[in-house]
Amino acid sequence: MSNNPQNLWEVYQLYCISLTTIYSSQQLQRILNEINSAIFRFLLTEFGFQRQHPHKKMTLAETAAAKAHLQSLPTSLLPQVRPAIQRAFDKLEVSGASRNTYGARINQLVTWAELESWWPGNLRRTEKFRSQCCPPKVNLYGDMSNTPLMPGKGKSLPYRLQPQETPPQLQAELNEFYQFMTVANWQGRVIEGVKESTAQGHSKNIELFLGWFSKYRSHYALMEKNELSLSLIFPLVTEQELEQLTPKQQQKLWKTHKAYLEAWICDYFNFLQSVMHSTSPRTRHLKLLSILILGKFLYRDWVEDKSDYGNIPLFKLVNNLLKREVDAMQEWSRNRYYVADQSLKWPDVPEGKSALSVVQSTVVEPLRLYCRPRNNRGNFRSPQQIAISHQEFLAWVDLGLSPARRQQEARNLKVALCCPVTRPADVPANGLYHPLPPNAVRDKRADSTLEDNYIYKTYTYEGKYYQDGVWVKDIQDYKTRKFHGHKSFQIPNHQFGDGSCVYEYIERYLYGWWLPGNYKNSQTYSWWDEGLQGVRGRWVTAGRAEFTPLDTCCLLPNSKSQMWSWGYFFIVPDVGKCYTDSTFANFFAYQAHTLIGKRITPHTMRYIWATWGFQVGLSDAQLRSLADAMGSTVETLRSMYERCTPSEKRRLIKEAIDELLFADAGNDDEVVMTNVADLQGIFQSIQCLSDQQRAELIKMLKSS
Fold first, then answer.
1. Which of 115, 254, 395, 512 has the most CB atoms lying inside 10 A of its own CB?
2. Which range (77-86, 341-350, 475-484, 669-678) has the least confidence?
3. Order of strands, sheet of 553-555, starting from the edge strand that comes earlier in the sequence
């Protein structure tokens, strides 16, 4: 018998042979009997085979006739087998138990046959094998360090005060300062607390100031460590000290401290510029904010209301310095000044294309192809490497195929690792269910509102039922939550050219990837997917579990509650913990640099999406929807993120003028020349208009 069957009888024989490698002789006999009954008693009745007594057992003569009839049926009928067996069950009024038994056997046979090269419409074996292979991964651009964003900056000097260098008394002050910033209810604090990530940034800046005082400031270099204190950064004047002075002496004291504070801040900013090569007003602004909140900590006993801080001369100085840096930041924003070379972060865009379409075709799609189980030589890749490829692709799907939100949301995205609930009524019996944990076990703020982000799978979302389920992100913690509130997003299940879709990659990443087929170490599938039950194949990866996760956390609200566990969706391989801010940004930049030589970060993707929105001419309503999806406003997109070229900005008004002013122009050469001359003058005038004035001009032209 040939391995390339010509009829359904030969397909049946090949399948029976494959079963002998899976089951014991006792199991095999039972399974063969069930397959024979399914084919001869039921299936063949839909393919022209007639029985005298359909509800009775088959005689030997009928069985022989059925085999002969099976030999006359071509393999091209295989795709019709599943619906045919269901029609036969209906006509013969087969019981539910028999439908389950015989229907499952037919389904297993068809599933096995679909994987073979001779299945009707399948790719040739060599082409099918090739579809499992990754394209060759060639890094034409070398290491990311070969593409420095600030070529002239050089190597930064480490000057942060380290824990081993911090005296115990100073460390106690730093700890109290951190609690002042983060504890929900701090006695005597009149300002709002800040998030831990913000507090960590302020603490880092304070430690940098202290290290600078200790190591680099000429007036204080090589000072004794026990002389370091927080009042060295923000001078502290006690009320008792002021009571002993006359008003004139008080004024002189404040003037002295203001001069000291301003002097060291200027020295430090000069150090940042000349030694650390840091010129951004945003950096100086953040440093001043850290100084300001430290001052509010040191002078906490002076005030009864936050407005009282404004009466203290030192705060007036810092606020004035802050205003100066805010003005500088606005100027940088208006003129599109950046510290880093933006050309190294922005993709090269051909004429007529958008940066977004370039990223999708040159970064996102190649990363999807790298998820394949074999390398370009045809050998299976390591399970961990396949899982890493899925993580890289899904991270880019989050920012490249949907409006890019801030990286913090994806970086801190959690996923439930257990499901201690009764299966909901809307979840199919064989449906994959991945619930959103109840509020009782989720992270909360001091006011009991939720403070975490989850990804989950459900079958009913926003009042609509989805037969195959949908994956959803529940976002409770992000930068602009106070302005835009809680967000819930259905993850789009984009389908790709080969028929695969986003949800397949999510589920392979979370649960592993079962690849049907006959391999050296094949085993029989025995998990939740009924369509694969009994099918031979292998697990090519265990997905997220390949990273030896160490982030699992169990939350038990009370002794009667079910135990829930969770982990981070994106975790660092081998380390097993979630990414930090910088490592997550580099995680993105590395993939983009390897593929196209550009260091695209999650924040760059926000610029790319905003620019696309203006470049393609989205309507006002569409722009508002895009901004909302990005957790921003249209005004912010326009003022901060939009990076259309001047020619792109002028394109819409040029098209409007061509359409509305010159639509009726004739072919007379003299008229054409006059129109061109007029058009040049109009362009020069329009270039002087603001974006808002241009928009108003377009509306006026359209209404005329």
1. 395
2. 669-678
3. 487-490, 464-475, 453-461, 413-416, 564-568, 553-555
How many Å is the Cα radius of gyration of the chain?
34
Quote the CA–CA distance of 430 and 439 in Å, as a whole number. Answer: 27
Of 367, 423, 360, the C-alpha closest to 393 is 367
Q: For residue 153, what pLDDT is reported?
A: 64
Q: Is residue 397 within 8 Å of residue 493, measured between CB atoms?
A: no
Return the axis-axis angle of helices 646-660 and 691-703, rounded to nearest 10°. 20
Burial-class residue 418 by CB neighbours within 10 Å (0-12, 13-18, 19+).
middle
**In 10 A of CB 468, how many CB atoms?**
11
Strand partners, 380: 374
Predicted confidence (pLDDT) at residue 545 exceeds the cutoff of 60: yes
Helix (H) or strand (E) holding 210: helix 196-215
DSSP 121: T
Q: Sign of the CA dihedral 294, 295, 300, 306?
A: negative
Tokens at 482, concatenated? 């106070």
Single out the residue of 422, 359, 438 nearest to residue 396, CA to CA.
359
* Distance (Å, whole) CA 82 – CA 331: 68
* Residue 375 to residue 372: CA distance in whole angstroms: 8
Taking the C-alpha atoms of residue 444 and residue 447, their distance in angstroms, rounded to an integer, is 8
Q: Is 467 helix (H, G, I), strand (E, B) or coil?
A: strand
Beta bridge partners of 465: 460
Measure the CA–CA gap between 544 and 571, rounded to whole angstroms.
8
Tally the C-alpha atoms within 13 A of residue 699's C-alpha that lie toward its C-beta: 8
H or E element at residue 594: helix 581-596
d(CA 433, CA 438): 15
> What pLDDT is recorded for position 562?
66
Check whether 559 has a pLDDT greater than 70: no
Residues 160-206: tens digit of each pLDDT: 999 999 999 999 999 999 999 999 889 889 999 998 889 999 999 99
Tell me the per-residue pLDDT of 480-499, one tens digit each, with 9 for 90 and over. Answer: 888 888 999 999 999 998 88
Instruction: Report pTM.
Output: 0.71
Q: Are 206 and 150 in contact (CB under 8 A)?
A: no
Question: CA separation (Å) from 589 to 143, 345, 396, 533, 609?
Answer: 11, 9, 11, 41, 17
CA 507 to CA 171: how far, in whole Å?
Answer: 46
Q: What is the pLDDT of residues 1-41, one digit of tens each?
A: 456 788 999 999 888 888 887 778 778 888 999 999 899 88
How far is 689 from 697, CA to CA, in rounded Å?
10
